[in-house]
Amino acid sequence: MSEKILKEKRTSQFMWAEKYRPKTLDMFIGSESVKAKIQSFIDQQDIPHLLFYGPAGGGKTSLAKLLVKHLPCDFLYINASDERTIDTIREKIVGFAATVSFKPLRVIILDEADYLPALSQAALRIVMETYSVHSRFILTCNYIERMTQPIVSRCGGGIKIEPPKQEEVACLLASILENEGVKYTDEEIEFIVNSYHPDVRKIINFAQQNVERGKLSIEVSNYIETDFKEKLLSLLKTPRKPGVFGEIRQLVADASFSNYDELYRFLFDKVDEYAKGKEAQVIIELADAVYQSSLVFEKEITLVAALQKLLKTIA
To answer: Would you say 196 and 25 are in contact if contact means Cβ atoms under 8 Å apart?
Structure first.
């Protein structure tokens, strides 16, 4: 993987996440079993309807785009988070699926398909059935539970795209930085990967945004915020510890934390680690805290109040 990245020519393409999007299966970092399944589709030069699901930035869209490049097909890409109406299904998708082509297949990549409302998914199911002889669909989503069962069943239950390991992502990031002529330290790479894994796209984007004069330069505040999150998580894991709420209040006061939305997202992503058996109630309380935070100026007070509620719930 790293050797292939290092051979990538420097181009004028600005966004690294797009520039280094894998073009072959060898360049894709992820589950070997998934790669083997994709390779079998390439070997057959045909695919069934597919549904890739898993965390954001884990490679679902990259895998879909990589696959169509190795099939005898014309393809259409639509981001369902932007175009989610029935009109999109009827006009764009049906128009493309029904078009006569000189190639054996027509493939529609419907990215972020979990944004489609139920009515749009019902219309999509009909299209998938009607044009299945020559047209195939590759759907991607973060949350498969938001997809209707008829759609999931027509995609064979879906293929879960597990995020690559942190070590693999670190090697990828190092290769990209070296190819771009950017100086870095192992500590900086470790910080970025630990902060944003499993979102590979966010890791690459964050690194690019923090390059100054050919050197990776990360603000001290970023380190502080990451350290704050880990300390907060550690305290939430000991809700019955005497004085734990006082420690949390002091931690929040000392941190001068500013990105509250990101913090609530962190608490949501880590809920299984500190609230086992109480996940549902904690998620409801987090949702309420996010709403309250959007309405007030003193967000720190809302945060501390929310953390006190969490402690009572998980104790």
So the answer is: no
